[in-house]
Specification:
- It contains 21 helices and no strands.
- It is 70% helix and 0% strand.
- The chain folds into 2 domains: 180 residues, no CATH class; 198 residues, no CATH class.
- It is globular.
- It is an all-alpha fold.
Length: 455
């Protein structure tokens, strides 16, 4: 039996896309209000078909590689849980509080299983097939939204939303925009624009897919995500012009810079300088400044601050509902960097951010090569900027995309364009420069340790 059978199997591909599509439809507000996160469980079918194929075919190809990806992804989640359990015990939290905090992470374990299952079944095509399922779900949600307001009114509202750059008054006054407002998938579409433009070289229709992702991204426009995408595109374009050694230095430097930046960012938030700057420049915060000021009572930027445990911020804001202390009518911090610090503490946050950005960058660099490390850093830069004012760090689809895309790109055998002339004496000056650059890059390329595992 062909070990790559599932890559192009209409049955397996169709079932996988169907499961992702059904789970994505759970983000439609009508279903989401009624069922919450329950539809995400449907995506477990993707892991189910991988298990069925494994039993049927007995195919263990890439098992070692996939196990390493599983461990690097799951270690972050386990670390957060163990650190939080220690804090909960020291703070004498109730068993119910602890169980609720741990249960919130259960979807992340399912998420990682689906990522590994998709990599097992489809290798480099896993990210593309996931995009098909999510894009289809997003498109259906837009159509359903348009049916409630009329196509003409929907198009008008969409254009006004884009021209106003997602102004809050336009969103609030548009029934259509509110109906199709699906934060998680919108953020993911931005990731896919970057992926198809820079990290999907072997895909014939990648520019068409990038255009489709951009349309869906603009339909649910998020201002911070737009700025994130521009930064990531500039980073990817710059990195792509560098030689492998320079790419390695760039991503390593970026990983350490993120650690320094996050602590600086936390200090200016705690001091109130961040919100003061945004208000001074007329940037609408939509109540975030009230949350940041309220949360500032519960933490300090000092090594002695040990943290409150995972999900403390959400539980705190929910406990304020209906009381005189309620600051705004939302229960999310809308700042994942701040949330992680408050919950993990000074040293817990340091260990987490060093592991996630510095160690994982080094891991991708040494295990998968420079190109995959650039992919990992580009996508995480996009997400990092959005973490500054939003709460999408553990969104289901966002988490899946940032795990799945670097893994898919690792499996993608990037093919260099063959040289028309192999005799250097017969090359033009331009062709000779391209040839010399290619040979230099090949000589400098770090030998990824996974390469031998896949032979």
């Amino acid at each position: 039996m062909d070990v790559l059978y599932t890559k192009n199997s209409k049955v397996y591909v169709g079932l996988y896309i169907f499961f992702i599509f059904c789970a994505a439809m759970g983000d439609w507000k009508v279903i989401n209000v009624a069922l919450g996160g329950l539809p995400k469980v449907v995506s477990a079918g993707a892991a189910g078909i991988a298990f069925v194929y494994l039993l049927w075919a007995g195919n263990f190809k890439n098992a070692k590689v996939l196990f390493h990806f599983f461990m690097i992804y799951v270690s972050v989640i386990i670390g957060i849980i163990l650190w939080s359990v220690m804090i909960w015990i020291l703070d004498f939290q109730s068993v119910g509080y602890i169980v609720k905090g741990i249960s919130k992470m259960s979807f992340q374990f399912l998420n990682i299983l689906i990522v590994i299952a998709a990599g097992y079944l489809f290798e480099e095509k896993a990210a593309k097939y996931t995009f098909f399922g999510l894009a289809l779900g997003n498109a259906v949600i837009i159509v359903l939204g348009a049916l409630t307001t009329g196509v003409g009114a929907a198009l008008g509202d969409m254009i006004r939303n884009i021209l106003s750059f997602g102004a809050s008054d336009v969103v609030e006054n548009s029934k259509f925009i509110r109906a199709i407002e699906i934060h998680d998938i919108t953020f993911v579409m931005g990731v896919y624009v970057i992926y198809f433009l820079f990290f999907c070289h072997g895909e014939k229709y990648r520019y068409w897919y990038a255009a489709a992702a951009l349309f869906l991204f603009m339909a649910g426009l998020k201002r911070i995500a737009f700025l994130s995408m521009l930064l990531a595109i500039v980073f990817a374009a710059f990195a792509s012009r560098l030689a492998p050694k320079s790419q390695a230095r760039l991503v390593t430097l970026a990983s350490f810079a993120i650690v320094v930046f996050c602590y600086y960012y936390l200090s200016i938030i705690h001091s109130g300088a961040f919100t003061a700057f945004l208000e001074e420049h007329g940037i609408e915060l939509m109540g975030r400044e009230k949350i940041y000021d309220f949360i500032s009572r519960f933490y300090t930027i000092t090594p002695s601050y040990r943290g409150k445990g995972y999900e403390f911020c959400v539980q705190l804001l929910r406990s304020m509902n209906g009381t005189r202390e309620q600051v705004v009518n939302i229960t999310a911090v809308h700042n994942d960097i701040l949330k992680m610090y408050v919950e993990l503490g000074f040293f817990g946050f340091f260990v987490w951010i060093m592991w996630y950005y510095v160690y994982q960058t080094h891991w991708f660099l040494t295990r998968c090569g420079e190109a995959v490390a650039v992919c990992f850093m580009t996508i995480n830069l996009y997400m990092l900027v959005s973490y500054m004012t939003d709460n999408n760090m553990f969104y289901y689809w966002s988490s899946m995309a940032i795990r799945l895309i670097p893994m898919s790109f690792f499996f993608d055998p990037v093919k260099e364009r063959p040289l028309k002339i192999k005799d250097t004496d017969k090359m033009t000056e331009y062709e000779r420069k391209l040839y010399e650059r290619r040979e230099k890059a090949r000589a400098e390329q770090r030998q990824a340790r996974f390469n031998s595992d896949r032979d």
